[in-house]
Amino acid sequence: MSNAQRALEHAKTQRSAYMSGFSELLRIPSISTDPNYKAEVARCADWVRDEMRRIGMKNCQTIPTDGHPVVYGEWLEAGADKPTVLIYAHYDVQPVDPLNLWVTPPFEPTERDGKLYARGSEDDKAGVWANLKAIESILAVDGKLPVNVKLFFEGEEESGSPNMHPFVAGNKDLLNADLFVLCDGEFVRDQPSIVYSGRGIVAAEVTLTGPDHDLHSGTYGGTVHNPLHLAGKIIGSFHDDAGRIQIPGYYGAVRDLTAAELANLEQLWARTGVQFKERSGAAHFWGESVASTAVRATALPTLDVNGMWGGYQGPGTKTVLPSKAGFKVTMRLVNDQDPVEIGRMFKDYVMSFATETVSIEVSVPVAGYPFSTQFEGAGVEAVQQALVATVGKRALMERAGGSVPIAGMFQRELGIPMTHLGLGPGDNIHSPNEYIVIEDFYLAIDTAIHVLYNLISFK
Ligand SMILES: [Zn+2]
């Protein structure tokens, strides 16, 4: 019997112990966004650190940040010829309201119909626990891990990771590794997927100022420049009729999908495209001549006006020529588009409309980097082969249309290859009655075991 098989056998004999340990973890209300739970988040961090220690990890510690602590542990005795794998998950959870919609209390894990209900069961204590139990199973039968492992569990993912950038930037040596495995997300037995790309985001706000106070449109209309008109002109110029963004240089760092990526995207879209359209409620999509809907939704940048204001919006007529107008924009970025640079391009473009009759101010409060993990290669193949072994299927590679700013930050700061492994087999994340399917969770643990063995030759 191979070492991997012995570890899998061991995990099987420990199933009920692993589930009762998981329930203990789930009982700690580690809600990171609510200051009232600060002590509970800290208690959860200590609990996870102690568990790391108990299973045989070394140098286990909670590391304070300006927010909630990071839990870190390592096992680096596999040898210098073996790769070092940095595994990320988060131990904090979402708030629980509305509490009355929970069938059983969110922090009293309860089993019903093969499911375990509790806040955080899928997102992302499953990611924490599956990795700990995989490591425990291997160390129990083998006394060593097949690769060097660093565990990095965050405590403020659900509150927007405000302290992760300084933490990662300040701990590059501690976190240095050959591969980063992002364990946050779903484990879907029927058809697993690996998220390999997420878009970046830039948010901007534009304020236009004309006369220093609102004027009478009968007296001054046609003689004083109306800032709302200029706002409309700017907004109207963002896209051409086909839907392509007109800001000079905007597409400079956008690359075409490879043939393999395109084929994969089409395969995924064949399953999800109809639902995507139904959920939108839109009778027709826009921008078809630029690229297919699937590509536009995930592999091209966007620019959307989220709201605009100015002048009179109440009932009836008001003959006003407004002093001020404004609008808010978000842009989603792909590939190597740098949000700081795109923010500057946007600002330069909008400012070029300023005249002596209307002044313009642009602020860019949010800038998050896009990320793309491996699409092919040894890291992703280790996950693929693990899934083939446990659920009998390769994952589809998925491009997220939304943003995971922290992933882009990891990628930039750490500069190491990255892959994604979702270990939460359930539903209702961020909602009442979050759960995992217990049988599938055992498969997630098995998958985590396989991944560690599959990575032996990653380096
Ligand atoms: Zn999460």
Please supply descriptive tags for the structure shown above:
single chain, 459 residues, alpha+beta, Aminopeptidase, Alpha-Beta Plaits, 2 domains, six-stranded mixed β-sheet, four-stranded antiparallel β-sheet, 14 helices, 36% helix, 22% strand, elongated, binds zinc ion
What does the model show?
With 459 residues, the protein is an alpha+beta fold. It folds into 2 domains: 3-198 and 370-454, Zn peptidases (Aminopeptidase, 3-Layer(aba) Sandwich), CATH 3.40.630; 200-262 and 299-368, Alpha-Beta Plaits. The protein is built from 14 helices and 19 strands. A hairpin with a 7-residue loop joins strand 18 (426-427) and strand 19 (435-437). It is elongated and about 90 Å long. 44% of the residues are buried. Bound molecules: zinc ion (ZN).
* Widest sheet: strand ordering: 1-2-6-3-7-17
- The dominant shape is elongated
Largest sheet, in brief, is:
6 strands, mixed
CATH superfamily of the largest domain: Zn peptidases
How big is the Rg? Answer: 25 Å
Measured as a percent range, the helix fraction is: 25-40%
Counted by DSSP, the helix tally is 14
Based on DSSP secondary structure assignment, what is the total number of beta strands?
19
> What class do helices, strands and sheet pairing give?
alpha+beta
> How far apart are the first and last residues' alpha carbons, in Å?
25 Å
| Total number of domains | 2
List the uncertain runs: none
Q: Could you say what the CATH topology of the largest domain is called?
A: Aminopeptidase
- Subunit arrangement of the protein: single chain
Strand composition percent: 15-25%
- Give the overall pLDDT as a whole number: 95
Small-molecule components bound: zinc ion
- Give the CATH class of the largest domain: Alpha Beta
